[in-house]
Amino acid sequence: MRLLSFVVLGVAVLVVSTAALLVRVAQAEQVSSISIAFWRLAIASFTLVIYVACKPIHRAELAKVGHGQLGLMVMSGLFLATHFATWIGSLAFTSVASSTALVSTNPVWLALFSWLVLKHRPDRWIWVGVAASLLGSALIFLADSSVLLLPSANTTLGNGLALAGSVTVCGYLLIGRSLAHTVPITLYVTIVFSSAAVALFMIALSSGAPLLGFSATAWLCLLALAFGPQLIGHSGISWSLRHLAPTMVAVVILGEPVCSALLAWWWLGEQFGWLQVAGFLLILTGIFVAAKSRTTN
């Protein structure tokens, strides 16, 4: 089961890595960041709701969900909504490499939270893996000297939004882990994604962000985001949380900036140098070291 969990998590991370490019194309088609976040989750949650409604077993499972569990799932959805609103927003102001590297720094927040609040201090190998991965992310960020083809490039704002997305996704990961053995995965992602979609709909309405009138290319990107990174990617990550420690999952997710940067180089022409290559290697080393830790069982 442990090997299967790593395979599922690895595939999920690869699929999630395409999200930044799809977002960038949708933004180029004049779709606002909030609208992209809303439709990504709305399409995914609608698909899941239909699936759950057609399965008697899932309807029976829903009836057994307690108020406390439901409240936690709604809270997880709010964390996820905030994560997507800030991270997708960051891609309008900074490079794919910097955005995905910074948004992937959540292992340090998870490790500190587990140590200071939950009193579960990770062993030295987790710390070594986290340190190596974070150093790799820092190198990618510092070495980002590509010419940004963005009309409103503001790397300070973009990097700040990406960092905010990193902090808020920790709540989503921790709640997912806490409910791993009490709520079925299909029911969990359905409620969480739906809660996030409702929250983003309210934000879009209050901010005046248009939700319709997009080009065919934009709609294709939104559909791809919903069925790829969201349904396959995030559902795979949520499933892996039931079999691997949250810090381990967060460290493996650090492989996303490597894949995203390579795709951005190939598709968008965003360049990176040897310092960034060193960062990619450090991230992969961190994942390997953390995978060897006894605390990830």
- The helix/strand order is HHHHHHHHHHHHHH
Note the gap between the termini.
11 Å
Strand fraction equals under 5%
Q: What oligomeric assembly is this protein in?
A: single chain
Query: Structural class, judged by helices and strands?
Result: mainly alpha
Amount of helix: over 70%
- Write down the overall mean pLDDT: 84
In terms of per-residue confidence, which ranges show pLDDT below 50 for 5 or more consecutive residues?
145-149
Walk me through the structure:
With 297 residues, the chain is mainly α. It is built from 14 helices and no strands. Helix 6 (96-103) packs antiparallel against helix 13 (255-267). The termini are close together.
Key features?
single chain, 297 residues, mainly alpha, 76% helix, globular
Element layout with pairings:
Elements: H1 2-16, H2 19-28, H3 33-53, H4 56-63, H5 67-90, H6 96-103, H7 106-116, H8 124-142, H9 155-178, H10 185-207, H11 216-240, H12 246-253, H13 255-267, H14 274-291
Helix pairs in contact: 1-11, 2-11, 3-5, 3-10, 3-11, 5-9, 5-10, 6-8, 6-9, 6-13, 7-9, 7-12, 8-14
